[in-house]
Design brief:
The structure holds 3 protein chains of 3 kinds. By secondary structure, chain A is mainly alpha-helical. Chain A is built from 14 helices and no strands. Helices cover 62% and strands 0% of the residues of chain A. The chains are: A mainly alpha, B alpha/beta, C mainly alpha. Chains in contact: A-B, A-C, B-C.
Amino acid sequence: MTETTPEGDVKFPPVVGAGADGATISPATPEAAVVADLPDGIDLVHESGLELKSRSQWAYARRRFVRHRLAMVSLVVLAIILLAGAFANLITPYSFAAQDFAHSGQAPTFKAHHFFGTDVLGRDYFSRVVYGIRTSEKVALIVTLVSTVIGTLIGAVAGYYSGWVDNILMRFTDLILTLPGLAVLLTAAAFIGTGNPIRVAFILALLFWTALARIVRGSFLSLREKEYVEAAKAAGSGDLRIMFRHMLPNAVGPIVVNATLIVGIAILTEAALSFLGFGIQPPNPSLGKLINDGQDVSSSMWWLVTFPGLTIVLIVLCINFIGDGLRDALDPTQRRTRA
Amino acid sequence: MPEPILSIRDLVVEFATEDGVVHAVDGVTYDVFPGETLGIVGESGSGKSVSQLAILGLIPQPPGRILRGEAEFEGKDLLKMSKKDLRRLRGGQVAMVFQDPMTSLNPVLKIGHQIAEAIQAHQDDVGDKAAKARTIALLELVGVPNPDRRYDQYPHEFSGGMRQRAMIAMAIANDPKLLIADEPTTALDVTIQAQILETLKTAQEESHAATILITHDLGLIAELADRVVVMYAGKVVELTDVQTLFAAPRHPYTVGLMDSLPRLTVDEEWLRPIPGQPPSLISRPPGCAFHPRCFLSQGRTRCRTEEPPLRVIGPDGHLSACHFAEELVGQSSKLIDEPVAGASS
Amino acid sequence: MVTYIVRRFLYSIPVLFAASVLIFFSVTVAGDPLATLKQNPLASKQTIHNIEKRNHLNDPITTQYAYWLKEAVTNKFGSPLLQPGTKIWDDLKRVIPHTLQLVVLAEVLALLVGISIGVYSAIRQYSIFDYAATTFSFLGFAMPVFWLALMLQILFTNIFIKWHVRIFYTSGLSSQNPGGGIHFWIDRLQHLAIPAMTLMLLSIAQYSRFMRASMLEVVNSDYVRTARAKGLPERKVTLKHALRNALIPVVTVSALNFGALIGGAVITESIFQLDGMGPYFLGALFNQDAYVVMAWLMVTATAVVAFNLIADVLYGYIDPRIRYD
């Protein structure tokens, strides 16, 4: 995805009560302290008789997200798919590896619950796909967590300290970006070896933090000039405390959006690696490997390639729509006006 | 009185946004007469430039929408005109100078080309050479030194003042009958402002165009305007000639604007800013939109419940939209007891 | 302008040097490059010893790196670890043009289509066309490239089997007897068409979104309003005043994409069995030939850096604001 959130300055609408949602900004004025105690979304009556409707940034964000219909629908669809994957052993009609030569090569049918057909060995592809989803979930979860933590740390340190620390970290980030991503992953997979989902996930995570590091750095560079950061410094707060208690909550919008996008990219990349034979190895189920299995007989048994692929498309599509909704919600600089 | 060159009647412009409908211009009516300079004054967000952009078809639609109204230019309603005819008019008989010369010129095209383009858009018979010669003459007229060389430069090679001169040259390129200057000096340094004012005057004299001067700066109004429209929250609240406005303002908002001005001639005893902020145009205060900030209102029920109509309040069609405008007679605004530049003539 | 280019060029030298360090050390640290060979019962101790000696594999890692760098610079990466008789550069010389043909075809078409879609989406924002284009690009972003490639392959194979119509070939670079001159190139185009379509889909999705966003930003800018205010026809406002500015970021992105695709079409090339950079790389990985892998990574990193440079120069060319600095 090229549509990264604009680097740097993330402006929220009038931040009255930004502290309300657990975002911990130490109130700089007594007034702010009072405001912070109010539940978010409340209308505040402002001075001189003028009614100014003030909502907290989170209330704004939630309202915008809920209004994003595609994102809401995607959230529901994705939840169903993910739950199916998580409870694969409960909902699948067959086990992942069970062979049944009497029913090999069957086209999709509701008879005997072979919704996605069977392969040459008579294995039920619906069950295999659902187990594959489970693997994708596992990989995506780890990749997203690990790369978000790495990216946030590197970006925060670079942006907070700036100067030579920033220079070194960002040049290193640039350097990683000059290497073709998939090739580096393949190399790592070939020489370190892969096989199980956790290993694959960690290899992916080592490459996926770069975009986020740049975004967080941008936010931190602008945030460090803000008054409350200066106030916290003047009050003698430690660097770590300022970075993670004061500044991070204000950079959370782009981090969340980016993390969402990483989930999608991680699933796509894991599938590609596994398809090429450098990712998850049997007996672990994987959507990419399923497509690879179907490749040889693709002209006669189209369903073996089609359904695992469609599953990936659907999952990633939902994730990207949710990401889009989150971006609209959390990044009001791209505020849309409606006709 | 001669026929007005532009007459706007009951113009309503809205913008649909996520937070609701913004009533940017709400039933505005006024005339512009040939050769005169009409000042439109108001705080930012009072709808003073939107009305001009709207009648020329320059607001994005959507989200913008012209709900109703008329805008007759030389007898033809601009709002009913075909897109093509309106386009012919823009930059031809009606030209605009915008607020920010830093962003109003295309950064990737040469200055000379941008002006010549305006000429050729309206005069088909002008060849490239003639357009260039005319452009250089225009640049010279507005006081750009070395116009030959400047012709081939890009906007980033021009200073702010020089860019605004180029914008003015562009505006008068086709001898407009109406020149709309939208905050022409706001974005410039104070020292440059005076020069641009002079340039604007030159341009006006050269083209004999009627001028609409949109500004929040009463000083500029005093300097240039013949008649003044005061706008607040999308409505006209006062309309009169410039002398009367400064000598006998009949709307508390106008009085407030004047009281918040510092003067150089007297030792300042009090500077009185208007309290509060301009109202949200999404949910306007009921009754008179100005009442929460008004020193006359003071909790009067009528101000809160009844919207004051624009009515004749003084000689020569002096209009004001205040229930209690008469109470301002004899009230001292600091500017009232002192003749203002231009007001004495 | 010249000093600007020279300065940017000089800057890329340390970048490439750093890349070579990163590549060499991570590949070397990742594992013993001869691990697989040592498990092979057919490989004699002598062979292994020869390989180790020739490539200084038993020296300290920094010395190894120095030898490797020297070989890379003076001898165009030298020979593969496992096939000392051949030259890495000979293989690269063969595969790079193939990859370039594919990438240029796909990217040029994708740029044309993507920009058109993006511009039209922006000027007809929230129209049916805009929604369709948005849906299309979201699908493009969600689609695994290898899956799309397979689906297209299945589709065109079935067309051929059912109707015996040969529109496009579904694998390989050329037919057995492609003929000469124009016939050769027509045949080549028929082979590259589907792989190019595969690559194009994602690029079109990207460019159209990018162009749309960039165009929307520009369309609401003050200078476009000025262009309208001076009475230019809408066509001229869009194509001359808005488009030229909106293209600036897109040109940069596409130059970077070009660079990235030299080593980034691995999957497409291998599915369609095009003898390009991708299959060559996968082959080296399967053989675990670390020296070929490193040479390949260096070439692709160089491509990225070179196209970065090109992007900068192009940027300076279309945006007069940064021309003289």
